[in-house]
UniProtKB/TrEMBL annotation:
Keywords: Cytoplasm, GTP-binding, Hydrolase, Nucleotide-binding, Ribonucleoprotein, RNA-binding, Signal recognition particle. One of its GO terms (molecular function) is 7S RNA binding. GO terms for biological process: SRP-dependent cotranslational protein targeting to membrane. InterPro entries: AAA+_ATPase, P-loop_NTPase, Signal_recog_part_SRP54_M_sf, Signal_recog_particl_SRP54_hlx, Signal_recog_particle_SRP54_M, SRP, SRP54, SRP54_GTPase_dom. The keyword Glycosyltransferase does not apply. This is Signal recognition particle protein. Composed of three domains: the N-terminal N domain, which is responsible for interactions with the ribosome, the central G domain, which binds GTP, and the C-terminal M domain, which binds the RNA and the signal sequence of the RNC. It comes from the Bacteria.
Length: 453
């Protein structure tokens, strides 16, 4: 998300920083380019105009023109105003109510609402340690009920069944009662969607909100629909007491205009971003971190948090002991590191959070999950002895390994070369603070083969 906007803004500010002295004219020229970039990113015209005026008012003031580094000062102003536009701070779910806390999910059909219910259930179970009950009040699509039942089993949430012949309010109230009996912390209620906004849809969701008095009413909006998502948010916000928005499919939205417009238009915070199809692909929305990423400053804090959340401490200690003993790393250890990359969302996700990393992310296409899976298959086709003695893998062994893994000898060679580079990097890391430190900072550095170490 924001690739195009990020590229345009970084180009504008690079030119601005190169000027020794700023005037109202060259600031105005730069802001004109920023405005064009915002509009091309599908930011609504009123939002873009209001943003530019706020930046202009500050940029032509004493804090910028009298600064020793005026170009950087302008960037600082833009970053702060971006954060303000996006919401200033992360708004977490308000679950500090008598349990079970009810979370009502609303949105149009096709926005990813049912999948988001499962993602949120997984997030609450794994990161917040909550017991979660889910149910579907979408009586018009039996497939949606079946889908949620399957996803609930995948994420470990309790599913309360429903039938298409039942009343939506009765379904939701039964789920709440079941949650009380089970002493669950949270109930997430999926609701019916429509292909477009209509009176029946709004009356039904309004009835559910009145009956349940939810702690959170979240609108699920598809970021790929751009300004349509903003208009949808406006309509739902007019009919419901929304507490926040979940933007889905942001991994496929290169423009990002919806994220920049929804908060301004509705006054409601974006609470989560859907960043992929899998149930773990849900991230809390941090305006300050996203503003940094838009301006090419990276999001190292999120990267470190993800590394800490997914890192295997036992694995880190084992590798550190191997290094200290002089035994070095094996291909089995290398495979563990590939799994760590997948747990962190893949190499592209890691690079995207590094300062300037978005320029490298395009070159990481060869290290996506499919490629990592092929590398793992190659290692799995090796014998335990070969994994410990990679330097002994010669022509005949390479042919056997390639045949067993469904790959080519060239791919086996490439893997061995990458592993050799990693061994070299590991020896250097030993001198700089140990394996634990490296795993906590995964994503920094980069070999010419695209491996993140």
């Amino acid at each position: 998300m924001f690739e195009n906007l990020s590229d345009r803004l970084q180009g504008v500010f690079k030119d601005l920083k190169g000027q020794g002295k700023l005037t109202e004219k060259n600031i105005s020229d730069a802001l004109r380019q920023v405005r064009i970039a915002l509009l091309e990113a599908d930011v609504s015209l009123p939002v873009a105009k209001a943003f530019i005026e706020r930046v202009r008012e500050r940029a032509v003031g004493q804090e910028v023109l009298n600064s020793l580094t005026p170009g950087q000062a302008v960037v600082g102003v833009v970053k702060e105003e971006l954060e303000h536009l996006l919401g200033d701070q992360n708004d977490s779910l308000n679950l500090a109510v008598r349990p079970p806390a009810v979370v009502l999910m609303a949105g149009l059909q096709g926005s990813g609402k049912t999948t988001t219910v499962a993602k949120l259930a997984r997030y609450l179970r794994e990161r917040e340690k909550k017991e979660v009950v889910v149910t579907s009040a979408d009586i018009y699509r039996p497939a949606a009920i079946d889908q949620l039942e399957t996803l609930a089993g995948e994420v470990g949430a309790t599913f309360v069944p429903s039938e298409s012949t039942e009343d939506p309010e009765a379904i939701a109230e039964r789920a709440v009662e079941q949650a009380r009996i089970r002493s669950a912390d949270v109930v997430i209620v999926d609701t019916a969607g429509r292909l477009h906004i209509d009176e029946d849809l709004m009356q039904e969701i309004q009835g559910l909100q009145q009956a349940l008095d939810p702690a959170e009413t979240l609108l699920v909006a598809d970021a790929m629909t751009g300004q349509d998502a903003v208009q949808t948010a406006e309509a739902f916000n007019g009919a419901l007491d929304l507490t926040g928005v979940v933007l889905t499919k942001t991994d496929g939205d290169a423009r990002g205009g919806a994220a920049l417009s929804i908060r301004h238009v509705t006054g409601k915070p974006i609470k989560f971003l859907g960043v992929g199809e899998k149930t773990e692909a849900l991230e809390p929305f941090h305006p300050d971190r996203l503003a940094s990423r838009i301006l090419g400053m990276g999001d190292v804090l999120s990267l470190v948090e993800e590394a800490q959340r997914t890192a295997d401490e036992d694995q880190a200690e084992k590798l550190e002991k191997q290094l200290k003993s002089g035994k070095g790393m094996t291909l089995a250890d290398f495979q563990d590191q590939l799994k760590q990359i997948k747990r962190m969302g893949g190499l592209t996700s890691i690079l995207d959070k590094l300062p300037g990393g978005e320029k490298l992310a395009g070159g990481a296409a060869g290290m996506d999950e499919t490629q990592i899976n092929r590398m793992e298959a190659i290692i799995n086709s090796m014998t335990p002895w070969e994994r410990r003695h990679s330097d002994a893998i010669k022509a005949s062994r390479k042919r056997r390994i390639a045949s067993g893994s469904g790959t080519s000898v060239q791919e086996v060679n490439r893997l061995l070369k990458q592993f050799a580079q990693m061994q070299k990097a590991m020896k250097q890391m030993k001198k700089k603070g140990g394996m634990k430190k490296m795993m906590a900072q995964m994503g920094g550095g980069g070999g010419d083969q695209g491996f993140p170490f």
